[in-house]
């Protein structure tokens, strides 16, 4: 063993990227989160070759000032929190300040941004983490991030990527989650030059119908529960529309897609008497809780959460879902009245 030394920043970023950036879909998730946090109302995604070649996300959000462009690509640099108190009540999707630094360390990245009110846009590039000087550019108000050749400098990692079709399917799933949880934002997705999805800003019920299918919406009952500062809203399919896999299970906590054991258990319990053991329910549910009562800083990918009062959350979900299943209200009618 040689002497202990502090690793260079580039290597530290690549190690962090190992946790956060697994495949093109992880890049897309980070970029979409940033666009949403920037207050965008219109987000356009362009993907080439399943995201292995290119992922571009353009938004009409607040933009980044020219003197902060290179900071945006640096580790632990964020505009979303500034102190420990902020960390206890996260209201944005991002907050760790490592998404862009991680992506930049394992790809070719171009960032162009126009802050509203600024004279013109600015751009910077990064190649495997080496950041260039900002240069003037042209771009409407908002930001475009373009990522090319993910893992070009980590051949071992690149080898683990699957086919173009599989990687695109993962990207599409990430895109769908964001579209489902943010119906008020317009989303466009193109792959290899073809338009795959285009949704205007719309009501939640209609977005669910367009993203998941008319059949799901027809089979769904509406959930809307609120008590003691917790809210549960959304649509869940009645048992007749059960699935062979867990492919239609979307649960969001304060707008963030999560996979959580406690939540999964509450849902399973609620469906237990009405669903055969080898069938899976379909649902899109939004849980809204006080940001101070949930910790999202559990894992770098932020898909796990820890509730301060897990029992109360479990009970609330169980009762809300049981009640909805026991006295179904057509999701479509509920929306029309
Ligand atoms: P985090 O999202 O955790 O703050 P990131 O590395 O993803 O960390 O982004 C760093 C910072 O760059 C963000 O805090 C934000 O200020 C800025 N940023 C990134 N993407 C955008 C965007 N699309 N629009 C405006 N600002 C952005
Ligand atoms: Mg981010």
UniProtKB/TrEMBL annotation:
Domain DNA mismatch repair protein S5: 208-326
Gene Ontology biological process terms, A to Z: mismatch repair
Top-rank lineage group of the source organism: Bacteria
Gene Ontology cellular component list: mismatch repair complex
Molecular function via GO: ATP binding; ATP hydrolysis activity; ATP-dependent DNA damage sensor activity; mismatched DNA binding
Keywords for the protein's UniProt record, in alphabetical order: DNA damage, DNA repair
Family note: Belongs to the DNA mismatch repair MutL/HexB family.
Described function: This protein is involved in the repair of mismatches in DNA. It is required for dam-dependent methyl-directed DNA mismatch repair. May act as a 'molecular matchmaker', a protein that promotes the formation of a stable complex between two or more DNA-binding proteins in an ATP-dependent manner without itself being part of a final effector complex.
Name of the protein this chain belongs to: DNA mismatch repair protein MutL
Organism: Nitrosomonas halophila
Taxonomic lineage: Bacteria, Pseudomonadati, Pseudomonadota, Betaproteobacteria, Nitrosomonadales
Stretch of the intact protein here: 1 to 337 of 597
């Amino acid at each position: 063993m040689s002497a202990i030394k502090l690793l260079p920043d580039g290597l530290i970023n690549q190690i962090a990227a190992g946790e956060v950036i697994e495949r093109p879909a992880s890049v897309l998730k980070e970029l979409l989160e940033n666009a949403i946090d920037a207050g965008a109302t219109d987000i356009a995604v362009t993907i080439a070759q399943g995201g292995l070649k290119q992922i571009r996300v353009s938004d009409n959000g607040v933009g980044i000032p020219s003197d902060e462009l290179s900071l945006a690509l640096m580790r632990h640099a964020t505009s979303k929190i500034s102190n420990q108190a902020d960390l206890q009540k996260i209201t944005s999707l991002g907050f760790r300040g490592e998404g862009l630094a991680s992506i930049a360390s394992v790809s070719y990245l171009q960032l162009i941004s126009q802050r509203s009110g600024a004279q013109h846009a600015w751009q910077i590039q990064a190649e495997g983490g080496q950041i260039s000087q900002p240069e003037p550019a042209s771009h409407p108000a908002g930001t475009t991030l373009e990522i090319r050749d993910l893992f070009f400098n980590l051949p071992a990692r690149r080898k683990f990527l699957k086919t173009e079709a599989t990687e695109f399917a993962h990207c599409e799933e990430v895109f769908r989650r964001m579209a489902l949880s943010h119906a008020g934002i317009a989303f466009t997705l193109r792959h290899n030059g073809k338009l795959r999805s285009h949704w205007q800003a719309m009501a939640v019920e209609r977005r669910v119908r367009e993203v998941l299918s008319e059949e799901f919406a027809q089979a769904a009952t509406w959930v809307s529960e609120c008590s003691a500062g917790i809210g549960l809203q959304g649509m869940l399919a009645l048992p007749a529309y059960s699935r062979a896999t867990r492919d239609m299970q979307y649960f969001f906590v304060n707008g963030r897609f999560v996979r959580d054991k406690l939540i999964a258990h509450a849902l399973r319990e609620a469906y237990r008497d009405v669903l055969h053991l080898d069938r899976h329910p379909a649902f899109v549910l939004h849980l809204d809780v006080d940001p101070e009562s949930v910790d999202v800083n559990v894992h770098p990918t932020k898909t796990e959460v820890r509730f301060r009062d897990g029992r109360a959350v479990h009970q609330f979900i169980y009762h809300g879902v049981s009640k909805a299943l026991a006295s179904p209200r057509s999701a479509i009618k509920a929306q029309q009245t």
